[in-house]
Write a structure and sequence with these properties.
single chain, about 525 residues, 12-stranded mixed β-sheet, 16 helices, 22 strands, alpha+beta, globular, D-Maltodextrin-Binding Protein, domain 2, Dipeptide-binding Protein, domain 1
């Protein structure tokens, strides 16, 4: 097929941008506005294009537990409570809440709120949503957030009482999670009707999501992009943008090229290896955000040889976390001792981790019955840093006799297959989005949460199960801290994971983007964003 001059020029421009990325040569000059048009800073309107690593798995707040899905869903759905930049709880669709007694909470709801389909937000909607999350037929991977709830009582149109099976101090924090996003009751009914006809739970909701948020769903081309448009009837301060496009761009260098050529306004994430390039380029900058996240390598504790804690300890001791942080993440983060970041309630800095010691790792392997090592696989999704971390681990484990084959798996399949326990080792992350240790430990390590809810290591012990349950039920602040310290000590000793680091989130952002900030949970906050 003959190529036109314009097509050839565009192709050469893309090739040149990739070449620049590979060679790290001088950056392009900043682009000028079309026809010399001068745009006022902070002007409203426009389409914000976010080039992101992975597509959403579902646009159903009850139907998935991954960040790409949550990033989209946060703009469509709202929860009763929300957390601010300091992880402190603020009113959302509930204006206030109080603990009536040890097991009863009352929430006063915001009046005059409409869903995108025109239906009213009220107490009946809250009841329908919470009951859906907990419905075994729906099998929500976020049901663990609310499985202590035994009843949702509609007191009146704008008051609900939530009864829990036991005292549960973090309930408001859990309701601030995106899993507590409120879906239109009409849409929930339609989804149940489709389920009765044999459809999968959430299929109708993901196909046409309806919330109360400042953006509305417009379209989803799976694997390509999701587009949201401004909700003109939003109950609060409306969004300033006309629309937002979440564009799926799996390759780091391609995302960066799109930022440089103004095909995208945000590169999410930005590879640490590309920070200096962005910082040295006019017209763009790096956005840094400390996080409550954990990056880790998980072991399948129900498959040999990782069912032996000595093997897990040996792998942990064979890896220099500082080398990963400095060499792969360019220093963007701090080493992890256990699963909790320092800003999470329940973190205890007196707990000591397993230190890097290759010779000790060899001894532990021999003690476990593997003096000559073994052969295994390490899975990762198509994330540049995770692939680099896997490659580093592969090289380091070879030094203690462990031969590792790396397998790169597409994101959706990766989540599905690790949830089924088909892996040996895997690279993944977890963000303690509630800011409370219950979320940072219960879903990851309790036996009830194997698979999709979070426990992809399939690790548990009766002692740890008991501690995690007691800690979430105990209303006493100090007693909870003591229990979480004990849990962290167990998790260091048992090593179901190689806890790598608590990362610093990095974004590449065009200077035309104003008013953007990123939450410590990694969610992009877009309500006040404008394009210059």
């Amino acid at each position: 097929m003959e190529m036109s001059k314009n097509s050839f020029f565009f192709l050469m421009l893309l090739v040149l941008s990739v070449f620049i990325a590979a060679c790290a040569s001088e950056p392009d000059a900043p682009a000028e506005g079309e026809a010399g048009e001068e745009v006022t800073e902070g002007a409203e309107g426009g389409d914000l294009v976010i080039a992101q690593l992975s597509d959403a798995v579902a646009i159903d707040p009850h139907g998935s537990n991954d960040t790409p899905s949550s990033n989209v869903a946060y703009n469509i759905y709202e929860s009763l409570v929300k957390s601010d930049e300091n992880m402190e709880l603020q009113p959302g669709l509930a204006t206030s809440w109080e603990e009536i007694d040890d097991t009863t909470w009352e929430f006063v709801l915001r009046e005059g709120v409409k869903f995108h389909d025109g239906s009213d937000f009220n107490a009946n909607v809250v009841k329908a949503n919470i009951e859906r999350v907990l419905d075994p037929e729906v099998a929500s991977p976020r049901s663990f957030l609310y499985d202590m709830i035994t009843e949702v009582e509609v007191v009146d149109d704008y008051t609900v009482r939530i009864t829990t099976e036991y005292p549960f101090a973090p309930l408001p924090a859990h309701l601030a999670h995106n899993g507590g996003g409120m879906i239109s009751a009409k849409l929930i009914e339609a989804d149940y009707a489709a389920m009765a006809e044999g459809e999968e739970p959430g299929q109708v909701i993901s196909g046409g999501p309806i919330g109360t948020g400042y953006f509305k769903f417009d379209s989803w081309t799976p694997g390509t992009e999701i587009k949201l448009v401004k909700n003109e009837e939003y109950w609060g301060e409306p969004a300033k943008l006309d629309s937002v496009t979440f564009k799926v761009v799996p390759e780091d260098l391609t995302r960066l090229a799109e930022l440089e050529t103004n095909a995208a306004h945000i590169s999410d994430p930005l590879s640490p290896a590309d920070v200096s390039r962005v910082e040295g380029t006019d017209g763009m900058s790096v956005n840094r955000q400390p996080s409550v996240a954990l990056s880790y390598i998980g072991f399948n504790a129900q498959k040999g040889p990782f069912d032996n804690k000595l093997v897990r300890q040996a792998i942990t001791k064979a890896i220099d976390k500082d080398a990963i942080i400095e060499g792969i993440y360019d220093g963007a983060g701090i080493p992890a001792i256990g699963p909790l970041a320092p800003d999470v309630f329940g973190f205890d800095d007196s707990v000591s981790g397993l230190e890097y010691d290759r010779e000790e790792a060899k001894k532990l392997l021999a003690e476990a019955g593997y003096p000559d090592g073994f052969t295994t696989t390490l899975w990762t999704n198509d994330n540049r840093e995770r692939i680099d971390a896997a490659t580093y681990v592969q090289a380091e484990l070879e030094k203690i006799g462990v031969t590792v084959e790396i397998e790169v798996v597409e994101w959706g399949a990766y989540l599905e297959q690790t949830a089924k326990g088909e892996h040996d080792m895997f690279v993944l992350g977890w963000s303690t989005v509630t800011g409370d240790a219950d979320y940072g430990m219960y879903p990851l390590f309790h036996s009830e949460n194997y698979g999709n809810p979070g426990n992809r290591t399939f690790f548990s012990t009766p002692e740890l199960d008991e501690i995690l349950v007691e800690a979430r039920q105990n209303p006493d602040h100090n007693e909870r801290l003591a229990l979480y310290k004990e849990a962290q000590e167990i998790l260091v000793e048992e090593s179901p994971m190689l806890y790598i680091h608590h990362q610093e989130y990095l974004l590449g952002v065009s200077d035309s983007v104003q008013g953007l900030w990123q939450h410590p949970t990694q969610i992009l906050m877009l309500q006040d964003v404008t394009l210059q």
